[in-house]
Amino acid sequence: xxxxxxxxxxxxxxxxxxVSWLERHDVDVLLLQETKVKDEAFPVxxxxxxxxxxxxxxxxxxxxxxxxxxxxxxxVQRSFEGQPEWKEQVEARxxxxxxxxxxxxxxxxxxxxxxxxxxxxxxxxxxxxxxxAAADWAAxxxxxxxxxxxxxxxxxxxxxxxxxxxxxxxxxxxxxxxFAAFQDVGYREITREHVPQAYTYWDYQRLRFxxxxxxxxxxxxxxxxxxxxxxxxxIDRDERKGKGASDHVPVVLEVE
Length: 256
Hints:
This protein has six helices and twelve strands. The chain is of the alpha+beta class. The chain has one domain: Deoxyribonuclease I, Chain A, CATH 3.60.10.10. The radius of gyration is 17 Å and the shape is globular.
């Protein structure tokens, strides 16, 4: 079974590319982030034509998360218990569903913007709330996967030049501690175990991709019951190439 996660940076702009990738790589479940579309405008038909059910959570032209599955899509939940609000709104940043017996969540963690911006404490509160909810989800042994764009680079090697990130978000001690706290409730970041060094994001500006000046900010945190079933991980760097590419690439888990 193949489970993938991909920040597509506008699903309507890239729907043909995304569906083609799904078919070429024989993916069973795709978790989407940053779809940038309301529920009623999500391009469902191309996915259904390819054999996928779709669950989506989008309230405006920002954020947006979805799950596309050809192995079942049950118990869909939009947002999670205790998810913090931003400007009196619970943003479309998390959606969960059970696919072939695995509880999967597509997560799009807030960016944080700068260390002095109100978005930064919101980001930390969001991560803490997700950790608490995730601890409950896996407490009974359920296989759980939290996949998506975490907007955190946990290690210095996850950015092309750590000196350029001094005083910036994504690499601050508080963000890294919030990410590491998922380990304290039993989750494993399974992608690094299989692929020790790789980037998943390259900005569109300043020739970042040709120069391989990237970041690793897309991860899969898995409960013990799921982590033990992951046999391989692939980061599809080639999908950053060509016209119309997202600035992120797919992360794929091979699950027994």
